[in-house]
Amino acid sequence: MRKRLVYLLFLFLLQFTFAQTNMSWQGYFSFTQIKAVSESPSTIFTASENALFSKNVTTGIIKTTTTIDGLSGETITALYYSPTFNKTIVGYQNGLLIVINQADGSMLKVVDIINKNLPNNSKRINNLIEFGGILYVSTDFGIVQFNLSSSKFGDTYFIGDNGAEIRVSQTAIYNGFIYAATSSGIRKGDISNPNLIDFNQWQVNAVGDWSGITAFGADLYAVNTSGYVHKYDLGSNTFNGFLPLAEAVTNFRSTKDYLIITTANTVFIYNKQMALQRQINRNQVPNINSAFSCATIIQDSIYIGTVANGLIVTSFSNASTYENITPIGPSRNSVFAIQATPSQLWAVYGDYDIYYNPYPLDDFGISKFSSSGWLNIPFEKVFGAKSMSRITINPTNEKDVYASSFFSGLLKIESDVPTILYNQTNSSLESLSISPPDPNYIDIRINGTAFDKSGNLWITNCRVVNGLKMLSPNGQWKSYAMDKILSAPSENDFGTMVIDKYGTKWMATSKNGVIGFNENSNTFKKITFGENQGNLPIQDVRTVAVDNKNQLWIGTTKGLRVLSNVNDFQTESQLTSENIVIMEDGLAQELLFEQFITDIEVDGANNKWIGTADAGVFMVSPNGQETKYHFTTANSPLPSDVVNDISINSSTGEVFIATSKGLISFKGIATSASENLNNVYVYPNPVRPEYIGTVKINGLLDKANVKITDVSGNLVYEAISDGGTIEWDTTAFGKYKVASGVYIIFVSAQDGTETKVKKVMIIR
Questions:
Q1: Which residues form the PorZ N-terminal beta-propeller domain (predicted)?
Q2: CA-closest candidate to residue 449, choices 476, 469, 472, 429
C-alpha cells in the first residue's frame, strides 16, 4: 500500500510539473497529413501525423490537441472515439496508447505494448474497435484487450500458426464471433470464449493477405490487400468475392447506415442494400493533389482525410461543394530550417541526410508565420526550387527573404512572393561536377547564407572551387576561390554561416572544420581537427555562432568547441578552439561530449541554445558551465529528440525549435537589450489570482537597475538586467508572496542617464 501511495504521489507531481511547464510552451503543428478519423453524432475526430483536432458539427468549434497538451510526438496510426465512455483513444506506430477523457481533457499514456518483449517494428497499432466495454486493439503482432472502464490491458491473442505473431489489420464482431483480418488469412474466435488466449481456439476462415474487415447491418465484409471486397456467407462459413476495386483500400469502415470504402483516388459509399449512394473521385475535389487516406459520415456530411492536404468535408446531398476544415498551420511537421525576426517566422522543409545527400529531392514549398497567421507558399510558386534547406531574412528589410535550395540555387522572396530563382544561368552560382561529365545535369547546392552590415548577402556554394559567393544590394555578384584553403573542394559541403562584428565570415564545413574569411585582408583561415590544427574533435562541423562576448561556438558531429575571441582571426596564424570542461558528480567532464550538434543559437542573456541530432535541446549558461535546461520528449512537449534548427525572437525571447516531427517554441525571458527605455512594458498586468508564473519587465537596457516597491515605498525586489528582460516572482525577495495592491517599478540605466517608472497591479 505504501508503494502504491508513493507511486500515485509521483504521478501527481509529474502531472503537476508538466502542466506548469506547458505554460511556457507553444505548438505550431501541421494538421495536413491525416492518418485516421472517428466520429460521434455531433463531432468529427481527426488524427494527423502526431496531433489531433476535432470539430463540433453543431457549433462549428474546432479544438486541437498536440504534444503541448500531452500527446506523444510519435506517429499516430489509429483513432477511436467511445461514445459510451466519452473517451478518445489514440494508437501509435510504436505501440503507445493514449486515452483522452473528453470530460476533463485528462490523458493516460499506456505503455504496456511498448514494454512487451517483442521486436519494436511489430508493435504498430492498426485499428481499434469496442465491444462490451472492451477495446480490441489490432497490432502487427496480434490482438490486445483494453478495458475502457478500468484503463487496464487484458489478454493478448497471438493468433498466427502455432501461436506465432501475425499482423492484424482490423477486427470485427459479428454473430457472436470476433473476426480478424490478418496477413495470413481471416481468423475467428468465439467472443464469449474465456480462453481465446489459446491460438487453437481460433479458426481460419479464408487464406491470403487481408487489409480490412467490418460488420455492416446484417452482413460481414472484408477486403484483401489487392482491393477485392468479399462478403461472408454464414451458411457455408466462407468469404466470397463481391466487389473488385481498381486499387488497394486505405480505409474500410461502416457506420450505422453506410459502408464507406476509401482508396487513394476514390471514396465509395454504399447503403445497407449495397447500392452505391456516392462516389467521390479525387479529381473532383479542387486544390487537392494528394491521395485520400480515410473517410466517414456524420449526419449529411462526408469527411475525407487526405495524405497531405488535410480534412475535406462535402455534403452528402450536394456533390458540388467541398470545404477544407483543417486547422491552419505550417505545411508539414518535419521542419528542416527556420528563421525568426521580431515580427515573423519563416520555415522550409527540404532536407539532406547526415551525409549532405538531398536525395530523394523534396518539393514542399515554404511557410511564414506572422500576426496574420500562417502563409503557405506551395511548390508550384517557387520556380521549381527543391530541397530548400536554409532561410535568411534581410535584417534591414524583413520583406526581403532568401531560401537556399540544396539542389536548385537561391530563391528570392519579396513581400511574400517568390520573384526569382538564382542559378547557373543568371548568377555566379555553380553546379557541382560529376564524373563522367554531363552538361545536362545541374545540381546547385546552396546552404549557409548571412547578411553583413552593408547589406551584402554572403552565400556558400557546396562542392565547387569558388565556394563563397556575395550578392550586393544592387544585384552584383562576386565569387571567392577557396581551393587554397579547402582540401578536396569538390567533396566539401557547407553547414551554417555567421558574420561577426569585425566582418569575418565563419563557415561550417563537412571536411574542413571551420573556415574564416575577411575580405578586407582577403584572408582565409582554418580551424580543423588535431591539436596543432585547431583542436576540433572532428572535421565535420555543422553549425557556428558568435556570442555577445565575441566568442565563436562551434558545433560538430562529435561535440562542442569554443574559439575564445573571434578577433584572434586578425592576429593569430593558427586559430585554436577549446572544449568546455564541467564538473559532474565530482568528475571533470567535457560539455556535450561526442554529441551530434545541429545548431547553436545565442539569446539576449548570452545563454546558448544547442540542438542535437538525437538528444533534444540543451540551454547552457553564457560560459557553458551550467546546463539550465535539457528538453527531450521525455520531460517536455518536444515532439522529437531530432532537432533540426533553432531560432530566437530577439524581441520577445521566444525560442523556436524545429524538429523532425513538429515546430514548437519555449517562451523564454532572455531578450535582446534595447537601445533606450522608451518601450519598457510589464506583463501580465494585472496579475490575476489564477495566474501561475512570473511578472516580466521587458524592453530594458542591458545592465539596467530595476527596483520594485509597494505604494508606501517599501522595497520588495531589486535586480540588474542581463539582456532586455527580467522576471519577478511576485515575492518580497523570495520570502513570501506580496499582498494585493499596486506596485511601482523603477527602471534606470546603468549610468543613470535614463529612467522609467511603471506600475503593476497584483490581485490575490
A1: 44-203
A2: 469
Q: Which tens digit of pLDDT belongs to each residue from 676-700?
A: 888 888 988 999 887 777 888 988 8
Determine the pLDDT at residue 274.
96
Q: What is 136-169 written as a DSSP string?
A: EEEESS-EEEEETTTTEEEEEE--SGGG----EE
Q: What is the pLDDT, as a whole number, of residue 669?
A: 66
- What angle is formed at CA 67 by the lines to CA 65 and CA 71, rounded to 5 degrees? 75
Element (H, E) at 591: none
Instruction: Of 227, 204, 228, 232, give the one whose Cα is nearest residue 216.
Output: 232
Residues contacting 625, CB < 8 A, separation 6+ = 580, 582
> What's the grid cell of residue 208?
491470403
Mean pLDDT of 112-121: 95
Q: Where are the beta strands (DSSP E) in 159-291?
A: 168-174, 177-182, 185-190, 203-206, 210-216, 219-224, 228-233, 238-244, 249-254, 259-263, 266-270, 276-281
CB 266 within 8 A of CB 251: no
Q: Supply the DSSP symbol for 196.
A: T
Q: Which residues contact 80 (CB under 8 A, 6 or more apart)?
A: 38, 88, 89, 91, 128, 129, 130, 135
Q: Which pLDDT does position 18 carry in this prediction?
A: 33
Residue 568 sits at φ, ψ, to 5 deg, of -60, -20
Main-chain phi, psi angles of 106, to 5 degrees: -70, 155
Residue 164 banded pLDDT, cuts 50, 70, 90? very high
User: How buried is 275 (Cβ within 10 angstroms: 0-12 exposed, 13-18 middle, 19+ buried)?
Assistant: exposed
What is the average per-residue pLDDT within 86-112?
Answer: 96
Check residue 670 and give its pLDDT. 67
> Quick one: which of 27, 5, 8, 19 has its CA closest to 662?
27
pLDDT in tens, 199-232: 999 999 999 999 999 999 999 999 999 999 999 9
681-762 has the same fold as 484-579 = no
User: CA–CA separation, 274 vs 557, rounded Å?
Assistant: 59
Residue 97 has pLDDT above 50, yes or no: yes
Question: What is the C-alpha to C-alpha distance for residues 14 and 5, in angstroms, rounded to an integer?
Answer: 14
Residue 753 pLDDT: 78
The residue ranges of every structural domain in the chain are 158-241, 484-579, 681-762
* pLDDT tens readout for residues 423-433: 999 999 999 99
User: Which residues are bridge partners to 725 per DSSP?
Assistant: 698
The closest alpha carbon to 308, from 330, 323, 337, belongs to 330
No. of helices (H) and no. of strands (E), the chain: 2, 64
More confident site: 247 or 733:
247
pLDDT on residue 587: 87
For domain 484-579, say whether CATH 2.40.10 is its number.
yes
Span 148-171, average pLDDT? 97
Q: pLDDT at position 15, please?
A: 33
17 in Cβ contact with 70 (< 8 Å) = no
To the question of domain 158-241 being in CATH 2.40.10, the answer is yes
Cβ-in-10-Å burial (0-12, 13-18, 19+) of 630 comes to middle
Give, as one character, the DSSP assignment of residue 284.
G
Non-local CB neighbours of 297 within 8 Å, separated by 6+ positions: 39, 255, 257, 258, 260, 269, 303, 316
Question: Which residues, including other chains, have CB under 8 Å from residue 579's CB and lie 6 or more apart?
Answer: 535, 537, 559, 560, 561, 562, 590, 591
pLDDT at 21 over 60: no
Q: Which CATH number fits domain 681-762: 1.20.1740.10, 3.30.2350.10, 2.60.40.3110, 3.90.249.10?
A: 2.60.40.3110
Single-letter residue type at 360: P
CA nearest neighbour of 155 among 203, 116, 195, 96:
195
H helices of 237-395, where?
Answer: none
